Amino acid sequence: MDSSLVTENGESYSKALGNRQVQMIAIGGAIGVGLFLGAGGKLHQVGPSLVFSYATCGIAAYFVMRALGELVLHEPSSGSFVTYARRFIGPWAGFAAGWMYWLNWAMTGIAEITAVAIYVHKWLPDVPQWLTALVALGVLLAVNLLSVKVFGELEFWFSVVKVLAIVVFLVVGAGLVLTSADIGGAPAGPRNLTGHSGLFPAGVGVALMTLQAVIFAYSAIEVVGIAAGETKDARTVLPKAINGVVWRIGVFYVGSVLLLAMLLPWPFYSGDESPFVTVFSRLGIPGIGDVMNAVVLTAALSSVNSGLYSTGRILRSLAEQGEAPSFVSRMSRRQVPYGGILFTSVAYVLGVVLNYLVPKEAFDIAIAIASLGVISTWATLIFCQLRLRQAALRGELERPSYRMPWAPYSGWATLAFLALVVVLMGFSDGAEKIAFSSIPVLAVVLAVGWRFVKRRERTPLG
Questions:
Q1: How far apart are CA 82 and CA 88, in angstroms?
Q2: Strands, DSSP E only, in 216-328?
Q3: For a designed S-S bond to 40, which of 62, 110, 135, 275 qualifies (C-beta 3.0 to 4.6 A apart)?
Q4: Predicted TM-score (pTM) of this structure
């Protein structure tokens, strides 16, 4: 067999992702529409306290990535946390983790593919939004079906655009703050953090309610772990990519939100446009609306691209265990799991239709439900690391040298934080409460699905 293929756990993937692509996939996974678009509405809702929400969730995200890193270094697998859940918790956990992850990306895709259409509509107002959404989906579907190398190259350039936009904003924004520049009649400076009803203008309780949305903003950081099974020299490349998460979170996310809060008083921001557009538009810079629209469009396309890639691999991992339709296990001659990719693309098409037919509330509910998928994925990774450590202490396996810091206390603290976020969703008055109410329904569906899988006669994939 060609040495470029992976045959661990029944997989057969091409090791086509190099260090350059994996590094940028890791960076791109930590920068998305949640920051570029969603931060404006949350700043208007809770003011400068949003900085603390991003910092707190960033700490949790860091420990999740370190837990993922230890698991990946122990056993690189494109099945990622599904493989780890099955091994360290039990077969049912792999089934539940895989389908919750698919639900996350299905709901995220419903939002993102519609967002793509909205952004393109600004430039092509006479073209129906559903048509631009389908064209975008068709292009990204073709990219994912061609080969993992094409996916990696496209995601590399998507990430370059996002990172460049953030870096430019950080440099310009820092300069504006240091010079106390006048931004459309409002002087920039640290005084904006406390000068308008303090750091917590809406109260601590309301600030805590933003944690769910911020966690969604951090979603997709785990894609780099799924890419491990198709990465050259994964045990060397992955630690470097994961180690960079902490400073990316600190600089790109927390740093950007902190600058936004200092550049303008928080009431100036709105959920109707990107906060970056708000700042630059008030500076009177011509064409900035189109530039930022292109950047946010890139972020949405990147999210859809990552969703097709990751769910294709996760669904195949489930199908190999008889826990998903056999069709999703099919591989192309280029070692691409086209069955799973096509399965997810159907959900994205349905998303285009749903967002055309139903009001904005359904869009918000999709995002909230997607957050449940993110939280369940993060919790699975943390719990698997705890189990790996316990197995190592019993002498059943050897832990890699790249380890979760301050384990097991950091792991239990992260799990407690994630549980808090879920509980807080129940106290919301919006889409988050609807998502919280769906938890028992999801639990029943997963339980029934697992019982069906256990009873069905399994036939080996051949």
A1: 10
A2: none
A3: 275
A4: 0.86
